[in-house]
Amino acid sequence: MKTAAERTELIEQLHRKYAGVIYDLCVRILRDPVEAEDAVQETFINAFKAMDSFSYGESHLPWLYRIGTNACLKMLRTKKRKGATPMENVETATRDVAFDDPANGMSVRAELELLQQKLDERNMEIVVSHYLLGMNQQEVADSLGISRRAVVKRLTRLKKELPHDIVSNGQSAAEFSND
Amino acid sequence: MTECPSHLMLAQYHCDELDGETRQKIAGHLHDCDRCTSSLSTLRQNAATYELNISTHAGALRESLAAETPHNAEVLSFPARRKTMIAVGFAAAAAIMVLSGIVFWQPKSETPSDISFKGAFSFTAVVKRDNRQFNISMAPELQAPELQENDAIRFMIQTGHRGFVYIFNVDHKGAITSLYPFDDAGRSMPALSLQRPGAHTLDGSIVLDNSKGREYFVAIFSESPFDTGVINAPLAKALISDNKENGDTQASTTDRLPGALKDAVVRVIAFTKK
User: Fold this and answer.
1) Residue of A nearest to B2 (CA)
2) Are residues B19 and B117 in the same domain?
3) Per the structure, how many domains does chain B have?
4) For chain A, what is the largest distance between any 2 Cα atoms, rounded to a whole number of angstroms?
5) B48 and chain A: CB distance < 8 Å anywhere?
6) Is the dihedral of CA A161, A164, A169, A170 positive or negative?
7) Which of A21, A133, A136 lies nearest to residue B3, judging by beta carbons?
8) Fewer beta carbons below 10 Å: N end or C end of chain A?
């Protein structure tokens, strides 16, 4: 077990190395640059707390990815959508960050917020990992520590509940994964 | 590679964390796949945006991590003579409080649950009464807790930065008693230096006497050094009054502070002695 000082030093190293890509992850999920910055901080704080559970071999990135995904999903659950004043926020949200598909950036966010009211945390993580982050079923299974079969069953069951933009966002990955 | 790599794999590619064979496969895939090329470009653009301010983000993270390590609380050391001088000083000033300084009970080390520490500065009084212990912090004026004679008080602070702190008591008449650092003759002294950010449990304890009325513990934290003499009784009263008007717990009213304390944070704990 590392001391607090050792953990702090390691987290600061990881932050220097990975914060940029974790920010991109958070932008992809949250579609809001300000919230994404908060989520990056939350990710590294949570990583600091969970340091003793780290067991992802040599690379910390997959581990941070999972923590980051969950930090974003938690923000979706707990924060009211800023879209209460949509025009201003859409402008803010799209000015400083890049999306693969800017046209549906905010609609994906809106659909995720609706979806998280219907799905439990585990299913949300599966949906986001597969459709938004392009993980194939085996990668999702490995990330969550469950069987591929369980992922397939859940995705099959969930697919009819998923809104259009989220499915289409991940369509290519799903097509290519072909599994 | 016919299958599009996941976003994670693209990130690993960007960070140069893949083995040679996988890296080569992805490079080949990127050559043929506009979607993944665009996705990688987006990733690089967003990462670069964040990294423009990486030092600011790193500073904020450092503050948050410091707040997550209360178990490594640093015990500040004071000159041994302070413990006896405190009692003399309070007696001489006929102050409301009696400092015993011989009370060596140790507060529980966990972070007080009623603090929402965001990295700048937090201030808590740990009260020991008989065999139980509880914390008081920056409660609204109307919810100021009641303390009583013989309550022993110990202070805990958390800072996100190195800096200087001054803690004093203001009684119901507006008289100031300097607690940290202590000076029995009421002279101005340099504020205590905190060598590193994090949680600090201040050395020594105070024991309340039997006087009645509303009182305050005030902590002023600045990243720049200052002397305790910059806080006089009228200023202390003004700070308390701002706290009452705001009706909130933060009382970070810095407008009234002198120029030497422009960057200071003020925290006020109100309490009533019954």
Assistant:
1) A176
2) no
3) 2
4) 49
5) yes
6) positive
7) A136
8) N
Which of B18, B25, B34, B50 best probes binding to A when mutated, by most A CB atoms within 10 angstroms? B50
* DSSP code of residue A69: H
The total number of residues written for chain A in this structure = 179
Give the residue carrying structure tokens 């980051």. Answer: A68
Q: Which of A151, A156, A124 is nearest to A136 (CA)?
A: A151
For residues B137 and B115, is the Cβ–Cβ distance under 8 A?
yes
Range of B14's domain?
7-52
Query: Residue A77 corresponds to which tokens in the numbers above?
Result: 């659950």
Provide the CB-side half-sphere exposure for B241 (13 A, CA): 10
- Contact flag B54-A19 (C-beta cutoff 8 Å): yes
Chain segment A88-102, per-residue pLDDT in tens: 333 333 334 455 554
Q: How many residues does chain B have?
A: 274
Which two structure tokens, joined as six digits, stand for B235? 């200023």
Inform me whether the C-beta atom of residue B24 falls under 8 Å from chain A C-beta atoms.
no
- Look at residue B65 and tell me if it is in a domain: no
CA B82, CA B85: separation in Å to the nearest integer?
5
Q: What whole-number distance in Å separates Cα of residue B271 and Cα of residue B274?
A: 10
| Cβ atoms within 10 Å, residue B196 | 12
Domains in chain A (CATH in brackets) are: 1-98 (1.10.1740.10), 102-179 (1.10.10)
Check whether the bond before B181 is cis (ω within 30° of 0): yes
Q: How far is A126 from chain B (nearest CA, A)?
A: 13
Together in a domain, B75 and B169: yes
In a domain, B62, yes or no: no
Question: pLDDT tens digits, residue range B182-200?
Answer: 765 677 888 888 887 777 7
